[in-house]
Amino acid sequence: MTGLSAIELEDVVKEYHSHGEVVQAVKGVTLDIAEGEFFSLLGPSGCGKTTTMRMIAGFEAPSKGLVRLHGQDVTNVPPNKRDVNMVFQSYALFPHMSVWDNVAFGLKQRKTPQEEIRRRVGEMLEIVDLAGRDKRMPRQMSGGQQQRVALARALVNRPRALLLDEPLGALDLKLRQAMQIELKRIQREVGITFVYVTHDQNEALTMSDRIAVMNDGLVEQLAGPREIYERPATPFVAGFIGTSNLLTGAATGGELKIGGGRVLVPGHDGDVTVTVRPEKITIGTEEPGPGRSAVRGTVAEVVYLGTYNSYAVSLADGAEITVFQQNVHDATATAERGDSVWLSWQAQHSYVIGS
Amino acid sequence: MRRLTPYLLALPSWMWLAIFLVVPMVAMASVSLQTGNAIDGYAMTFSFSNYGDAIGRYSTQLLRSLLYGGLATLAMLVIGYPVAYWIAFKGGTRKSMYLFLLLLPFFVSFVLRTISWNFLLSDNGILLGTLKGWGLLPADFHVLATTFAVIGGLTYNFLPFMILPIYVALERVDPRVVEAAQDLYATRAAAFRRVVLPLSLPGVFAGVLMTFVPATADPINAAILGGTSNTMIGNIIQTEYLTNLDYPTASALSFTLMAVLLVGIFVYARALGTENVLEAAAR
Ligand SMILES: Nc1ncnc2c1ncn2[C@@H]1O[C@H](COP(=O)(O)OP(=O)(O)OP(=O)(O)O)[C@@H](O)[C@H]1O
Ligand SMILES: [Mg+2]
């Protein structure tokens, strides 16, 4: 990361008018994406990811706000004059052109010399492992191969930023994971900015330098993967990223009384929402000593999940807490359904949302 | 048995084709080689010279038909493509309504529609009469009984058969693919030329076939709008059959027209490389 801005959105709003109604797809998004960064837009279906991306690419003009690419205002510049390329959710390969012609399209439009086109397209097909298939038509290729053609078609132009809209959405899990690694490798190799749209939190967490979590047309949190996971800024982020336990109540003296026990929230008083990740919680029958957050409950469900067990524990006041415990010893569960148990965790693992 | 089922199911169609296409064609082919006259009847004499005679006598009308048919097809393409494009890409939620409007005049019979043009364009009719009244046109200006009127009539009458197949082809073009072209530095014009146009060629091909053939063979427009100096081959065939009762000449002319059209289509398909085009658009 060089720290220079590649893409800036300034309070961007996009409204659609359909059937006399105004739909706000994006309600005011501000982003500053650095050059060379792997940046993800993460959020549930319909939250405005694609719309945001289309405004960066230039297919949609914002209703309000500014789009800047590498410091230049491009809000009203058409897509063919922007130095970014897009990999579409559905690939959008040219069905009447061979793989080679698909990849060469951008270079031809820019009147690149024949010799250079031949060299660069050849190199790019090597990189995406499609050399020797350049005469095939798109419909003669598998989903994964089409995906790589789409990637090559964009990358061969050496854009300063590449926009990828759920590029792995149509692939099966195995291929998806292989392509994630591949994409990361390519990004390191070519060193350009990637803006990556996904609704898969694992994908975003493993690949990104920074993530913008979007919900209902707004960015809820913009931070690195660890920060987003460990210190979610809003209950939505906590719930959307992984499994998370939410405990709410009024704290007094840095302690939240709940479920026959206490949650330590040093320095907080008044109404708080606390999250704690399921894998941070220890399950036991003895009451833990002071210095740890501890609550009492009854095991409602035990699910064996291979490398770990998942427990659902009901607290006295009705709240339910999920606990993951690694299967380190034998596969025997620590607690059975109906057991009365203590749950405890270190004070540092409670995170007060919004603090 | 199971393997025969598809063939059995197709049997009615085969019979239909045999009875209404093959049998009359064979009959016509045989008539085209007969000699005789309307009063004493015709007898088979294998006189291939019927063809030479017919073509020799009516070569002007034959060539004129191909010319008018060709010009009308060209006009339909020039008018129809933008219309199809507009409906497919800008029609929004009203596409079906626009298509319906396009077909609306065709609920009226072909002949009536053409006659109504006759009214519209007559020397002192609604249009020309008014314009002449205002002094915008000279008193002896006329449109009826001109080449222009015939080609105009053909263009008007067959236009939907050009628009519909092009519309269907354009409708199938994924707008994302057009955006991809623009994203890859193509201007709107270049995106059209390199992506939209090639993908719509199968529709253009079908549209040209569906209009050129009937327009070239059509007798009605020339009869109603063309006066005496724009006779087309369809009119000749009709007259020979119905008025002169010269069945061999009429049959020979029909077969000649068919042969010319088939050769034309074949050359055209080759030139356009239809197979590649169709295959590419099939996805
Ligand atoms: N052309 C349009 N006209 C009207 N509404 C639209 C249009 N495009 C998008 N929307 C609306 O804007 C909202 C955001 O859509 P968008 O495609 O950006 O979502 P997304 O986050 O990409 O979702 P997904 O994960 O399903 O692709 C949705 O509610 C959608 O219905
Ligand atoms: Mg989307």
Q: What report would you give on this structure?
A:
The complex is a heterodimer of chains A (355) and B (283). Chain A has helices at residues 49-57, 99-109, 114-127, 143-155, 173-190, 201-207, 225-230, 235-240, and strands at 5-18, 21-34, 38-42, 64-69, 72-73, 84-87, 161-165, 193-198, 210-215, 218-223, 245-252, 255-258, 261-264, 270-276, 282-284, 292-304, 308-315, 320-326, 340-346, 351-352. Helices cover 24% and strands 37% of the residues of chain A. A 6-stranded mixed beta sheet of chain A has the order 6-7-8-3-9-10, with helices on both faces. In chain A, strands 13-12-11-14-20 form a 5-stranded antiparallel beta sheet. Chain A is of the alpha+beta class and 355 residues long. In chain A, helix 2 (99-109) packs parallel to helix 4. Chain B starts with a helix and ends with a helix. Chain B has helices at residues 5-31, 49-90, 95-103, 110-121, 126-133, 147-171, 175-183, 188-217, 220-225, 233-243, 247-272, 274-282, and strands at 34-37, 41-44. The mean pLDDT of chain B is 89. Chain B has one domain: Orthogonal Bundle (MetI-like fold), CATH 1.10.3720.10. In chain B, helix 2 packs across helix 6 (147-171), helix 7 (175-183) packs across helix 8 (188-217) and helix 8 (188-217) runs antiparallel to helix 11. Chains A and B meet through helix 2 of A and helix 7, helix 8 and helix 12 of B. The structure holds adenosine-5'-triphosphate (ATP) and magnesium ion. Adenosine-5'-triphosphate (ATP) is lined by residues 16, 18, 23, 25, 43, 45-51, 199 of chain A.
